[in-house]
Write a sequence for this structure.
């Protein structure tokens, strides 16, 4: 293996012409320069300089080495610049795992903003739900998890993770267009206690939020049809298969034939947050992504529901 420091000595000799001048430029003694050149010759198995009169002349092997040395030192300069950019949070790749609604409404806008302001900072977005996102975070498969508070999420004081709140995503009632309550501006959740329900699959965070909201209203919903895709869920409602609760961030494409009605009082909500491995939130690249997620969440924060026929 060729020692890069000896290539630097060879380049100084080529630039300055004599051992003494090269030594002065490198802040070395002439003896040290001669020793480095001799060591380089042993490494490559060929002479790199030959005496001619009182001076030295570089050999053909030295010319070959210098061609590579110029490229090598240029790459090292780029490496130093990139490390400095990384320290400023301008260079690197951060992997974000999130549930689908958060990917669409928070992570994607954050990635778009970062592409414009910090184009050398890469963002990889993955569809990963709780609790898998936290296992991936602990195993360093992802750098940031965007999830919601649930029984499967780490507690706020978990020493393994740092958390940043992003937004609250309230749930609204979604009713068939012909439902007697469809024309109301707001209803009490308990008014739907006797209905047939459409909801998320068992053991999901979204179902947990729905069940907790209904429990607070004094009933357990009779869930018959299930899907984790909210667009499909609203299509089920439009077909008259039941009523549902749908987060406002998931109401981007409300199908015809349904009404979205706000819930009176304090509606159930998804408490959305970003999590990192504790301590990694101070890395400039991760901090930049967290800031971008926070900015995107502020824009995406749901507005009050508007009834739709």
């Amino acid at each position: 293996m060729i020692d890069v420091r000896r290539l630097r000595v060879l380049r100084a000799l080529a630039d300055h012409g004599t051992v003494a001048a090269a030594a002065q430029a490198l802040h070395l003694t002439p003896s040290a320069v001669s020793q480095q050149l001799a060591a380089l010759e042993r490494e490559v198995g060929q002479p790199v300089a030959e005496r001619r009169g009182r001076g030295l002349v570089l050999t053909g092997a030295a010319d070959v080495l210098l061609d590579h040395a110029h490229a090598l030192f240029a790459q090292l300069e780029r490496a130093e610049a990139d490390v400095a950019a990384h320290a400023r949070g301008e260079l690197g790749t951060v992997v974000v795992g999130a549930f689908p609604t958060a990917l669409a409404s928070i992570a994607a806008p954050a990635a778009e903003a970062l592409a414009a302001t910090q184009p050398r900072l890469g963002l990889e977005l993955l569809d990963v739900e709780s609790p898998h996102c936290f296992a991936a975070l602990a195993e360093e498969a992802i750098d940031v998890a965007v999830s919601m508070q649930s029984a499967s999420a780490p507690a706020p004081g978990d020493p393994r993770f740092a958390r940043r709140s992003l937004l609250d995503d309230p749930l609204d009632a979604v009713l068939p267009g012909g439902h007697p309550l469809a024309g109301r501006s707001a209803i009490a959740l308990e008014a739907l206690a006797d209905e047939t329900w459409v909801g998320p699959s068992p053991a999901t965070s979204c179902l947990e939020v729905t069940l907790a909201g209904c429990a607070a209203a004094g009933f357990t919903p009779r869930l018959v049809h299930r899907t984790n895709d909210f667009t499909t869920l609203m299509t089920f409602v439009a077909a008259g298969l039941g009523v549902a609760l749908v987060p406002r961030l998931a109401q981007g494409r409300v199908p015809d034939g349904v009404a979205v009605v706000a819930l009176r009082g304090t509606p159930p909500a998804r408490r959305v947050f970003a999590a990192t491995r504790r301590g990694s939130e101070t890395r400039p690249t991760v901090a930049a992504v967290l800031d971008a997620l926070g900015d995107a969440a502020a824009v995406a924060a749901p507005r009050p529901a508007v009834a739709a026929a």
Q: What stands out?
A: The chain is about 40% helix and 25% strand. The CA atoms of residues 197 and 243 lie 5 Å apart. The chain has a mean pLDDT of 92. The chain has three domains: 4-87, 92-166+270-300, 170-269.
